[in-house]
């Protein structure tokens, strides 16, 4: 299929703040045998697109924005279907023009050490879509490097009542929310509550078995197994973290838990409440949606000690300080926010005194895809709606409305915005 | 048995630096039914005793120093052997005058939530021995609060070739070293290397099983399973961490690993080398004892990406910065050093960019006792020696020599020092 020589894309320009332009640009082409060209069916506008928009990330030349897409393969490099594809990631053999795919927000080769051990967001070839280093997804067409490793092929048997917009959530925010949740719940310091066995034995196989002496250890009681988790930040990623967390707790049949869902912005709390309304009381009944002061008061009154884990989704000083304030000693902070403050606001003495365990950084999206897609399909009643105050994807707009979309999303007037490049 | 009304103790006095005095003080007595009085057989001098000595921790009144002891029970409060002991920690029923015990460096009740889930160093009743809040162990007698929870009863069948001094190591440094190692090796971010399964599936049971889709995930290859760990700081705790780490790796039959044991002080590196000389080449051959520059160069040359985990035993800015520098993306920092710097030297952007997972704080010693005692017994050829350059416990001195002992230990002229209060 011959692609049009030019097509529409949204670029940000340097020199002044918030300079978003909708432009006709040369359609991307295959430049490396591992490349694919994808026709973008839907592209997301994400909170981290706003870093450059707000002047927090300097750049020198215009680039195409966006790092979330669901698309259809329209061209493949020579590596695909070649004899050399054997032994390489499966998509080099399998992927065909016409396939529907999702891309993570970074490319990743699936052939380096980091990809193989499950941390593709630190792939040695990793580049961020929608950055000065790699053209983004808010366009009619996008070039995907290392496409056999980067892309995720959507299974053909997916339910028909899930719109394309929903799959676009898998590019970043749903896996990131899921990762925030699993990084906290999977931590050995939370395990005594979830599994009912005391530390360090609960760590499992790596801990040598000690004959006889282990019987001296403390016993976890039923009353100790009241899990408490706070989510700091209820933007779109925070909502995804909330739904993921509830789903994981349900699947693991954790009997007693409370989730403190915290955001200072009323509209965001309202969105969280609307999403929770779509869940059963058996799940939603465990969640308290609160502003910052109310959350501090509730955690103090209800847990005394603090919560077992905090999912920190925001990435600024007040968010990480709130996380520290809310957590119990030996608690866990799972931080997926992008921090730009010049100094980390918690000092070593404070980290020591509360035995903080914290994990920072970018979600390994590609490795989370199976879990995220599975969650999306099973929870499509909650995550799958499009349009309106009660849906995670609040509105779908054409690329031509990008200037307005950025403005409204930046001011938090609009929640999650998705572009339809063909509208 | 009537105790003498006065006995000998080592106190630090406020007002000037390093004011250590050996004094005759009133012998401690039972002040609460849960107390025990222990005749101190051996007491340790630990690096963190030096914080007050060097003026880093202000205090207003003299107190008895020390937080490591092995002792013999000489008096028990009314809770012991009482009808009320039923349902309480076993030692309230079991402990008898004459029993040999070890104490952790903090008291802990074993009856609160934190004790039960395995984090007794954050027991709600926790107090640090040898601090302004609780008289310490560098004395002929010591009072142990919450003794049925705090003390660890040494099994009578222990090998006879292990001197008392060695068991004193269990009060702090051996469990702390063990904890540093297990906190790193038990972290989900290290698990892909140790277990050969990719993230996030390697987290285990908490991760829902996804039918079909999981097959898309990356595969860990044999070449990915070369574990690399750095230990920053080869003081007595660092040595304990090194031996613990090697033992855990051996017990788990981890086939390929390299340990970078790092310290800028030649005498400490020499001590580490001497300890390694007592181990088999099958273990010691995996260890490189290096200064800081050599460690940076070796890690860069041999791993490219950085090490999977760093045990940070020191607790200052250069140590934590070195840990950051040495670790791979998605690596783990297990920090047991006491940090006193007013600002944490790594900012949020750096933590994000390298996907740092870090755990800080005080070892839950009481919970580590079974593992530490078991290690000490099995590895007594390495850990058990007393006296001389090649032993972990370098010298045993009387309390009367405390002023000199503090001075020599502070200047790193002497390694690990133990007091014999009856010499």
Automatic annotation (TrEMBL), chains A, B:
PANTHER family (UniProt xref): DEHYDROGENASE, ZINC-CONTAINING, PUTATIVE (AFU_ORTHOLOGUE AFUA_2G02810)-RELATED (PTHR42813:SF2), ZINC-TYPE ALCOHOL DEHYDROGENASE-LIKE (PTHR42813)
Coiled-coil regions listed: none
Taxonomic classification: Eukaryota, Fungi, Dikarya, Basidiomycota, Agaricomycotina
Domain Alcohol dehydrogenase-like N-terminal: 33-147
InterPro entries, per the entry: ADH-like_C, ADH-like_N, GroES-like_sf, NAD(P)-bd_dom_sf
Entry keywords, A to Z: Metal-binding, Zinc
A molecular function GO annotation: metal ion binding
Pfam families found in the cross-reference section: ADH_N (PF08240), ADH_zinc_N (PF00107)
Gene3D superfamilies: Medium-chain alcohol dehydrogenases, catalytic domain (3.90.180.10), NAD(P)-binding Rossmann-like Domain (3.40.50.720)
The protein, known as: Alcohol dehydrogenase
Domain Alcohol dehydrogenase-like C-terminal: 258-376
SUPFAM superfamilies, per the entry: GroES-like (SSF50129), NAD(P)-binding Rossmann-fold domains (SSF51735)
Cofactor names: Zn(2+)
Recorded superkingdom: Eukaryota
């Amino acid at each position: 299929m011959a692609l049009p020589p030019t097509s529409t894309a949204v670029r940000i320009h340097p020199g002044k703040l918030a300079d978003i332009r909708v432009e006709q640009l040369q359609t991307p082409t295959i430049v490396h045998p591992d490349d694919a060209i994808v026709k973008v069916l839907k592209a997301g506008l994400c909170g981290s697109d706003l870093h450059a928009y707000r002047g927090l990330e300097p750049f020198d030349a215009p680039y195409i924005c966006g790092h979330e897409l669901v698309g259809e393969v329209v061209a493949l490099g020579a590596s695909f279907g070649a004899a050399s594809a054997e032994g390489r990631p499966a998509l080099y053999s399998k992927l065909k023009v016409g396939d529907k795919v999702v891309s993570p927000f970074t490319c990743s080769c699936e052939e380096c050490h980091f990809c193989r051990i499950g941390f593709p967001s630190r792939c040695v070839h990793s580049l961020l879509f929608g950055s000065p280093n790699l053209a983004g997804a808010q366009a009619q067409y996008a070039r995907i490097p290392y496409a056999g490793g980067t892309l995720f092929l959507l299974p053909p048997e997916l339910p028909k009542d899930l719109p394309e917009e929903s799959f676009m959530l898998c590019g970043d925010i749903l896996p990131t929310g899921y990762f925030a949740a699993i990084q906290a719940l999977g931590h050995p310091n939370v395990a005594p509550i979830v599994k009912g066995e005391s530390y360090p034995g609960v760590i499992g196989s790596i801990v040598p078995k000690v004959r006889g002496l282990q019987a001296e250890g403390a016993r976890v009681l039923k009353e100790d197994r009241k899990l408490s988790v706070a989510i700091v930040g209820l933007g779109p990623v925070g909502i995804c973290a909330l739904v993921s967390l509830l789903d994981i707790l349900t699947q693991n049949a954790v009997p007693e838990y409370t989730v403190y869902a915290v955001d200072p912005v009323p509209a965001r709390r309202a969105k969280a409440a609307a999403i929770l309304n779509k869940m059963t009381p058996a799940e939603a009944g465990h969640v308290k949606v609160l502003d910052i002061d109310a959350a501090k008061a509730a955690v103090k009154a209800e847990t005394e000690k603090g919560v077992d884990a905090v999912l920190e989704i925001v990435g600024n000083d007040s968010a990480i300080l709130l996380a520290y304030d809310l957590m119990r000693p030996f608690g866990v902070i799972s931080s997926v926010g992008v921090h730009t403050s010049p100094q980390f606001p918690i000092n070593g003495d404070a980290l020591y005194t509360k035995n903080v365990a914290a994990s920072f950084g970018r979600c390994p999206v590609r490795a989370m895809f199976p879990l995220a897609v599975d969650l999306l399909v099973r929870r499509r009643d909650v995550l799958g709606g499009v349009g309106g105050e009660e849906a995670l994807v609040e509105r779908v707009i054409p690329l031509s409305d990008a200037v307005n979309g950025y403005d409204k999303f930046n001011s938090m007037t609009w929640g999650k915005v998705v572009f339809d490049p063909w509208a």
